[in-house]
Design a protein that fits this description.
four-stranded antiparallel β-sheet, alpha/beta, six-stranded mixed β-sheet
């Protein structure tokens, strides 16, 4: 089985509105996927279809390599699509016990371990009402882990958290992947919040996947570089390699040199080129920040 979750042309329509448009997802074991798109892009709808909470209009869903009896396979996935149900008057431990009973998990030691794992071992008798939003989210994750899922699907779990809370949830999810080998699909409307967490990014807008890219590919696209063209671009690239080595790359079109160095080196770059008799026809610094890159992809001003 290559993919833990796979969809083929997964489509959802509400009347005339297409909310998910032929979505092809491929989720590999042990990766952390960020489903990134502005509000209304269709992220929740896709997750709800995976969870079986919303009927799909068309397309296929494959879980653990199977297309039939999806409900049986859904038991191996933990979905956090709405805010976790918590009883505000009860403690973290009491909430865990309650949910454990519902799911048939009564092991006290396991509850204790999970509360420790999410950093809530010292909250004692404090009722959940008095928890920060981040603490509530972490408790929700501990509850989701009771049934020992292999995959977690989380819809905007860091939405509304303060910066400290965001870091905590990110660290916790990273730990889940690294220490427990749990595969994660997580959504957000802010790419930069997930940029350091995910191994793979799926950028979506208006129900359609615009781009699938790995963390490395995203980094590559967003690094600063100086774009250069001369009257002999190929030879100029060779020349620049003498001084800047591996920082010199050719654009896929081979018509442009991309020199991945600080913009402060622009002057010495242009001097090197002209001193060697080449004529510069283009020299600009390109500095794309992650969020700019994403906004440009989804058509700006959505967030
Ligand atoms: P996201 O999670 O990316 O913000 P959603 O999946 O929640 O996006 O919503 C995508 C679109 O589908 C929105 O335009 C929303 O209004 C619409 N939508 C979601 N659920 C329903 C529903 N039950 N009936 C009609 N339209 C819906």
């Amino acid at each position: 089985m290559e993919y833990i979750i796979k969809t083929e042309n997964l489509t959802k329509r509400y009347g005339n509105q297409i909310v998910a448009d032929r979505v092809n997802l491929e989720v590999k074991k042990g990766h952390i996927y960020g489903l990134i798109g502005p509000n209304g892009a269709g992220k929740t709808t896709i997750m709800r279809m995976l969870a079986g909470l919303t009927e799909r209009t068309e397309g296929e869903i494959e879980l653990f390599g199977e297309r039939n009896n999806l409900d049986a396979y859904r038991n191996r996935i933990s979905f956090m699509i709405e805010a976790p149900y918590l009883d505000g008057g009860m403690t973290a431990e009491e909430n865990m016990t309650y949910v454990g009973l519902v799911r048939g998990v009564t092991d006290k030691k396991r509850r204790k371990e999970l509360l420790e794992f999410v950093g809530l071992s010292d909250v004692g008798k404090k009722p959940v009402d008095k928890f920060s939003l981040g603490m509530k989210q972490r408790l929700g994750i501990a509850m989701a882990l009771l049934s020992e899922p292999e995959v977690m699907v989380l819809d905007e779990p860091i939405n509304g958290l303060d910066p400290e809370g965001i870091v905590e949830i990110r660290e916790l999810l990273r730990k889940l992947c690294e220490e427990k080998g749990i595969t994660i699909l997580i959504s957000s409307h802010i790419l930069s919040e997930l940029a350091t967490l995910c191994t793979d990014f799926i950028i979506i807008n208006k129900g359609r996947i615009l781009e699938n890219l790995s963390a490395e590919e995203l980094q590559e696209k967003c690094r600063q570089y100086i774009a250069i063209q001369t009257d002999n671009t190929e030879q100029t690239a060779e020349l620049l390699k003498n001084a800047w080595g591996d920082s010199v790359r050719m654009a896929a079109s081979r018509e442009e040199i991309r020199l991945y160095v600080s913009p402060e080196e622009t002057l010495s770059v242009s001097k090197t080129i002209t001193d060697n008799g080449f004529v510069i026809t283009k020299l600009v610094t390109v500095a794309e920040d992650l969020e700019q890159y994403y906004l440009a992809k989804v058509g700006g001003n959505h967030v």
